[in-house]
Each structure stands twice: as C-alpha cells, then as structure tokens.
Amino acid sequence: MGDLFSNLGLGFSTVFQFVQWTPAFLGGMSIPLPINILLCLIGALVGTLVGVLPGIGTIATVAMLLPITFGLPPVGALIMLAGIYYGAQYGGSTTSILVNIPGEAGSVVTALDGFQMAKQGRAGPALAIAAIGSFFAGCVATVLIAVLGAPLTKLALAFGPAEYFSLMVLGLIFAVVLAKGSVLKAIAMIVFGLLLSMVGSDIETGASRMSFNIPELADGLGFATVAMGLFGFAEIIRNLDAGGEEDRQLVQQKVTGLMPTKKDLKDSAPAILRGTVLGSILGILPGGGAVIASFAAYTLEKKLSKDPKRFGRGAIEGVAAPESANNAAAQTSFIPLLTLGIPPNAVMALMVGAMTIHGIVPGPQVMQKQPELVWGMIASMWIGNLMLLVINLPMVGIWVRLLRVPYRLMFPSIVVFCSIGIYSVNNAPMDVVLAGVFGLLGYWLIKHDFEPAPLLLGMVLGPLMEENLRRALLISRGDATVFFTRPLSATLMAISAFLLILAVLPALRKKRDEVFVESES
Amino acid sequence: MSDAPSHAPEKSILPSWVKGPQDFIGGLALVAIAAFALWASSDLQGMHGFSFGAGTAPRMFGILLLGLGAAVTVVGIFTEGPGLSKFHWRGPFFVALAILVFAVGIRPMGMIFAAMSSFLIAALGTPETRWKETIIVGACLTGFCALLFPYALGLPLQMWPTFLIR
Amino acid sequence: MKLFNRRVAISGLAAVAGFGALATTVQAQEYPTRNITMIVPFAAGGPTDVIARIVAADMSKTLGQQIIIENVVGAGGTTGATRAARAANDGYTIITGHMGTHAAAVPLYPKLAYHPEKDFEPVALLAGTPILILAKKDFAPKDLKEFVTYVKANSDKLNMAHAGVGSVSYSSCELLSSVLDIKPTGVPFNGTGPAMNALVGGQVDYMCDQIVNAVPQIKGGTIKAYAIATPDRNPSLPDVPTTIEAGLPKYQASAWNAIFAPKGTPAAITAKLNAAAAKALDDENVKKRLLDLGSDIPKPEARTQAALGSLVKSEVEKWSAVLKPAM
C-alpha cells in the first residue's frame, strides 16, 4: 500500500508540475504555470468540442488532434492526449443525446435512452448524469489501475481467440436484449449487421468479399459511415416528414430543469455503480472488450429493472449505466498499454504512435524505466475526468440551448457537418455517398419498424466474432470443443446460455401477461 | 442496396390475406437482401478441411438472414400488424442530393463550394425554409467550417476549386 | 490565402489556358511555392507514419514550404498508393510508400490499380525497419539453428502468427516459410498489436515482424528473438545475431520506406526532393530519432534515385517469387 501511495504521489507531482513562465510584457516577472494541468484542460476542452461535431468519432478525433501534441514534451503530450481522448468520448455522448448521432459503438446505447430523454425535454439531466456517471467511473477505474494494473494484465493475456469468440457470443445476446420491439425483428437486424460486416477483405486469405471492386469497400464499411447514415441522416429525413417541425417545437417548449432531480440521482446511483464494475472488467480485454462494455451495462440494467418497458423510452438508468461503463472501460483499456506496451484498440494504437514519435517505446519495462510517465498518466486520467466534469456541467445549458435552433436551420447544418466529418476521416468522397445510402436505408428501416441499434452492434461484433472463431479453429486444428474445454471460455458460454434462458422466459411469460391484460379489459 | 422507399407498393396492391403489411414487405426485402448477399459471395471459397474459407461466414449469415426474413414475412401474413407507413419523397430526395453534391464536389470544387451548395440543397427538403435566413446561416456555417477544419484542426482539406489553385 | 500569390495565380492561368509545358518549367524552377501533400498510406502513429513525419519535418525546413501529411488508410496501403499514382505530377503530391505498397502488393493484389515501377518516379529511400524472427518466451529451440530444425520437423503442429494478409509481417512470414520450405498454419491477426498480444500470451508459437514493434517486448523478456534479417546487427538489439551469422543467410528482409512521386513529375523537382531527404537523413537529431526506433539509415550510395529504382525492381521480383495472389 505504501508503494501505491508513493507511486500515486509521483504521478500527481508530475501532473502538478509548475513551469516558470516569464512573458516579456510583464518585464521579467515570472508566473508559475501548472503546465500539465493546463494541457490536460486544453486537451479535454478541444476533445469535447471536436467530439461534439457529428460525424467525427473518438478515433477520428484523436487521430486528427494527434499532430498538435507533437511539439510538446513527451509527458505533457501524453497527458494532453489522454485529455483529448476523454473529451472526445464525452463529446460523442453529447451528440448521441442531443441529435441521436453516435460516433462510436459505445454511444449507440447512450443514444437509445438519451435521445428519448432529450425529446421529452430532459436533455439537461441526461447530459449531466452522463458527466457525473463518467466521473465516478473514472475515479474508480483510476484507483483500480493503480492498485491492480499489473495483476489484471494476466487476464488480458489469458484471453485467447476461443475466449474472445465466447465473449462475442455473449455480446450478441446482449444485443438481442437491447431491442424494445419484436425480438424476431431484432435478431434479423443483428444478422443483417453481421452480414454487412462481412464486406471487405478477408483477414486470412485477403480475398475481397462483396466489395464489387469499389476500392473504398476493400476494407469494409466504416462504423462511423454506417452509424451516421442509419442514425444521423435517417433521423433527419424522418423529421422532414410532415409533422416533424411541430414535434420539435413541442420538445423545445418542454425543456424542464437542466440538472438531474433527487429522484434521478437515486435512480441512477446503482446503475452507475454496476456500470462502473462491468466496464472496468471488460475494458481490460484487448480488442473488443470495451466495445461490449456499454451495452452489457445497459442489458444488465434492463434485466434488473422492475419495469424494463421504460428502457428505450427515456429511462435515466439507460444513460447512466452505459456511460459509466464506457468511461470505466476507456480507462482500464490503458492497462494492457501501460503494463505490456500492447495497444488493445485503435485509439491506444494511436497513443503508442504518439509515444514512439516522442521517443518513448512503450513496453513491459516502461513502468520501471519511466515511472513518472506511467504514474503521471494515471494521475492525469483522474484529473482529466475532473476536467470533464468542470467543463461539461456548465456547458449543459449551452448544449440544451442548441436544441432551440429552429429545425429548418439545424438540419442542413447537421447534413454539412456530417458530410465534412465523414469525408475528413479518410479523405474519401465515396464514404459520404455510402453514408447517404445508409441514410435512405435507415429511413426505410424506421418505416418498417426495424431498429438500427442491433444492426450496428451486429456490424461491430461481426468481424471480431468471425476472426476469433477462425483463429480458434485454426489453432485447435478444427476442434470446436475448445470453446467448452477452456475454463474461461466455458464460463462465458455458460453465462450466455443463462442469459438466453432469462431472455426467453419473460418473453413467454409476457405473452401470458398480455393475454391476461386483454381479457381483463 | 435497398432503395425501397421509391417502389414500396401501396397498401391496395397487397392481397387481403396479408394481415401485417409492414412486416410482410419488410421481411420480403430482407429475403431479397440476403439473396443478393448470397449471390455476391458465391464466388468465394468455402470450407477447406477444418478451416473456414473466405465465403463460409458470409454464406452462413446470408442463409440465416434469408430464414429470418422469411420468418418476418410469415409473421406479417398471419399476425395483425400496422399497415405500410407513407413515404415522403421531398425530404429524402433533397437530403440525399445534398450529400451527393457534397461528395462529388469536395475534391474538384473545394470545401467552400461543396459545403455551401450542400447546405442550400438540403434546405430545399422542407417547405418551412425561409431563404434569406437560410442563405445567411449557410454562409456563416461555411465560413466557420473554412476556419475550423483547416486552421483549428489542421486537416488537409482543399478550400477552393482545383482550377483556381493550379 | 495562397490564392492571391501572384506567381501561383499566373502559373494557374497558364495551365488553364493550355500552356502546360510553360507552367511546368516555371513550377520546376520556383518549386515549391505552396504546401506539399505527402500521402502516408497507413494510420497515423504506425512505423511508416512515424518515419515519414520525422523526415518530412526536416524536409519542410529545407524546402521552405510545409509538407502536410495526409494519412490515407486502407487495403494494405494500396488505397493511398492508388490515389498518389493518380495525383497530378506537379510535385505537390508525393507518397511515402514501403516494401508492401511498392513491391509485395504486386503479387498480392492482381487487380492492383498501379504498378510501382510504371506509375511512380523513385524519389528517396528513407529508412528501413529490419525484420526479426520472434517466438513466444518458452518456445523450445535455443538458437536459430535449433529453431530451423524444430520448425521444419513440427510445422504441422506449430502456429505462426501474422498481422493480416498484405501486412509486412505476413509477407516476411511467407518469405521465411518459403526459405524453410514449409507450409505452417498461419493464424491471421488484425494488425501487429493483437498478434504481439497473442505471442506474449503464448496463444501462438512464432512470427516475423518489424523491429519497432518487438524491441520493448524482447528487452522486457516477454518474447524472444532468434535473429535479425539484415546484414548487420542492430544497435538497439546488439545481442541478437543476424541471419547470416546464425546460419540462415537466405532470409533477408527489411521493411524499407521511401518517397515516390507520380510518374512524369519533372526531374528537377524529384532531384530537389531527393536532396532535401538526404539532408534530413544526415541531420543529427533526425538520425538519433530514427535510430531510437531501431531503423536502418541508408548509406549514401543507396540514397540516389537510381538506386531506389533498382531496389524497387529487385524487390518486386523477390516478392513475386514468394507470395501468391490473395484472390
């Protein structure tokens, strides 16, 4: 324990480092500046502002802002990048809640209830609870990394292809539970998403699949492209249907408080706690753990709730839990990077890139060799989360005011921002066209009462599932029993089976209930 | 891809034994998508020995979607469900056109032109547009983007038409 | 804005009016008069991107105009290379390609929309990252000789990881298999990170990869390296023998990175770029940062445009013999 405190002390002293600033106009007077804290603050602010732009997700934001850190000293650069990362994530959640445009897989779930809350005039509490939940999750996860970082690494290493496949099966079952309407149609949407995820080149043979020789399809459909179409553009088109404007005006008049009520806080507290725990555990698993964190948390809340029907219709727990899980996972996903030097996802790969540009090569020894860097980063995570709270609670009012912009001006702006956003990710005009096509598809799906969320999750999980299944079977030389003989994998499969039974049972019971209700009336 | 809005049949076209037209048509469209995917992946290699081929998973999911689409269709025949919703053409048409104009224009014409024209075309999507206000907001937005993306974010976006630069 | 620069405006008018040749001469003499876009066909932060950024920063100083990096990711780098091949050959669009995009892609992608020799002018060789033969830390063989015998004897039981078809790791793994004349089970991963994770976790037995990704793991003792596939040992891993010393001289591989320009870019311009790149490689600061990454800095005789042209030619031949089309 003493070690822990001295380590954290080292971290905080790095973060709180003061630099004497002697500007010429003060005539030789110097001002001590907490340079790293300022960098963290700027990073979080810029990250939030860019992340808020529809069409630009977390990865795109970090990639875009990466070059601005090149001129800084290494520790400062990394602290700023961490700030950008959290800011971008929170900015993405803001867009999901306000205009129903998720920039990454995690925010899809936030959009479900968050946007409904916004429609009911409760965007303020939704945004606030997202910030509060994220902050709490961030605090817990920071402590967790400091205390258990090294031992938890073993978990990341114990996860082989078989375990990942089982985890993805579990993820698919979560996706079913997300649905608020027909289970059959939700499953159909998941499979549609899985099918869409097959587009692109095959990882093992490199063969191009269903890409019709369009070079932009060679690496598959981008998540942001599809999400922007199915959520962003489709939502706009639907709103343009007759009656859209009246609906929007109603929303604007309904705006009640900006901050959550006591009841909101009481409802969300357990959700935040559970979300934090789930997110922290799943975030450690490289390559896919963090993806399913937010919807695992959502599913858990929906299952535990006394009134699951509220979910998808503006339940505050439906925002609190996934946001906490998402942020906790974002935090713990640093563990494999800090202890092993292996980037577990695309954002972390960018971080490694930033480190190498600064001449730091992350690896298993980075903890011993550059403790001020590692602990500085851990400390800055906490500071970063605090900054988010400081920046975003006051901004809630501004964001909510944005909703008052007349829709006739708002929607063309969203179209332009989304188009620029999508284009700027790969500099590919074709991506913009594809998003438009998915917009029309999304409009059609809405008209036929198919939900886009399970489709998107299917799309995210598809490649992870297929690749790990194939890897596992290659390694086991075709023996499919590996999924049940490896203890971790078997446990995950058992949980899946259990959840499936839980999901099917109430469906059967509900049928009886509905019959009962009808006969009574 | 499914651009079904344009050729979604009217309610009267469907025979009376279809109780849930919404699901019926939805299911049929999924079947069509699945069939298309199966055709598109038919040239890919299947299983070889114990290992998957490139085509194994797409085919698996294709067949699964075919079955699920059929199931949704059957549900649409036998269960009372909502009718087809009305599709409007104005919103989808102009929003899609705005996106297309942006995509086609961004490389040769630069961002300023692409963003402004895309904004104005999208605004045609609703009868509520007031032109004076729209043009002012469009110009401001374009100006904002022209400052934000290349300067604040340092993205290599081209601002002006190519023939002016060269 | 640059638009109002008179020289540019005049040369622009000339080009529009059809005086292409005149404009080109003007441009070649004055070059560069505006920012140069350098396409990096890989994600920001990857080995090629890092090398390109370090060198480009110094080249910008020499040329007096900013070199802006544009990451165009996709299909093993061929998406970005295709775009560069089709770009205007006025010297304002250049690309940092590597062993994959400008050699191995030829046999891998039969439908490739460009040819490294026919569609590009060689500009400057930057730095190479040597390939290592790596294995999980408790892999039985003690040295490369034992490794060769062991892998040959057990090739049907062992799992070789690679970072996906089209990656440097894939190509260098295939080269190893062809040198050893074996057909191991290749387990594909989505990039170097996950592949390294599986190797550290012992899920797979061995792999080949670029030095940048492996040095920290080797130093940390989580994996082991049998040999480095270059003629000389590398200063960042002085204890790792070369394949020549360790008895597998036929296995030579390095992920070289180089600047190319679209075919037909005026020779005066490519020469200017070549000189700027050579100057960057001699800068002490640039040198140190590249060496820290474990990369090889090309000797002066390898830095000429002609040398790069023949390197591309020989590399295309070498990989065409080893790699099969990915369909």
From TrEMBL, chain C:
Top-level lineage group: Bacteria
Xref: InterPro entries: BUG (IPR005064), Bug_dom1 (IPR042100)
UniProt cross-references to Pfam families, sorted A to Z: TctC
Similarity comment: Belongs to the UPF0065 (bug) family.
Name under which the protein is recorded: Tripartite tricarboxylate transporter substrate binding protein BugD
Species assigned in the record: Tardiphaga robiniae
